[in-house]
Each structure stands twice: as C-alpha cells, then as structure tokens.
Amino acid sequence: MLTETERTETETEGTFITLTGAHVRAVVETVADGIAYLERLDVEEGFRGQGIGTAAIREIAAQYDTLYVAADNADAARLYARLGEDADWAKANRLGLGEWLDAADQGFGVVEID
Predict the structure, then answer these.
(1) Are the C-beta atoms of residues 9 and 29 closer than 8 Å to each other?
(2) By the 8 A CB rule, do 38 and 26 touch?
(3) How are beta strands 24-32 and 14-21 bridged, if at all?
(4) Cα–Cα distance between 26 and 40 in angstroms, integer?
(5) What residues does 112 pair with on adjacent strands?
(6) I need a surface site. Which of 25, 54, 56, 87 has the fewest CB within 10 A?
(7) Where are the beta strands (DSSP E) in the chain?
(8) Which domains does the chain have, with CATH numbers?
C-alpha cells in the first residue's frame, strides 16, 4: 500500500507525486490527463527481488490510463518489460508526447503500462 507523502505542482513540468510504502519510494510525474511517468522507484537494498517494486508499479499504474517507465539499468529494463510493452510512439505522437517520450528514454527504451 502506497501513501502520498509529497506533491509538487510546477507550471512547466506538471505534478510530481511522491509515494511511500513498506521499503519502497516512488516519484510519479503527471504529464497529461490520465497519463503519468514513473520518474523514480527505489526499493530498499535488502528487500529487492521480493515483488515489492512490481506491486508498487501495478498499484501506481492502476491509477492512470497509461503509465510510462524508462529504465536506466538492465535490471529495471527487465522488470518493466515484464509489466508492459514497448511504448506506442504513434499514440504518443498523437497525444503530443512524442518529444517528451524521446527525452525520457535513458538508453533502455520506454515501456507503456496500461
């Protein structure tokens, strides 16, 4: 169970929400109506590999029509690939998010979780 612990609204970058739970912390950016980007997910060192991150991502994704995630390492890329599929760039372009999505890619691709 994640609880909102902080909310920062900016005029230019949208809303950032910090969520915390048992051994996990996430930062989510709302980028458009019903669409969010998982900016950061941290699971405490001794608790990784136990499904805590997976459960947190699923809980967050359930709150949005689409949740985008972009891995910055191979382990995160494998996790995200299990939970979603490669981002639909045509859909992102139709929504005016193509450039934003391209900038979010950290070298491991962008995954879309619906």
Answers:
(1) no
(2) yes
(3) antiparallel
(4) 5
(5) 68, 85
(6) 54
(7) 3-10, 14-21, 24-32, 35-43, 66-70, 85-86, 110-113
(8) 3-113 (3.40.630.30)
Alpha carbon 107 to chain centroid, angstroms: 16
The residue type found at 60 is: I
Closest CA to 41 of 18, 63, 62: 18
User: In this structure, what token pair is assigned to residue 5?
Assistant: 């612990």
**How do the pLDDT tens digits run along the chain, 114 residues long?**
788 888 888 766 667 788 888 888 889 998 889 999 999 888 888 888 888 899 999 999 999 999 999 999 998 999 999 999 999 999 999 999 999 899 999 999 999 998
pTM: 0.86
Closest CA to 4 of 69, 59, 83: 59
Name beta bridge partners: 4: 19
Q: Which of 30, 41, 100 is nearest to 65 (CA)?
A: 30
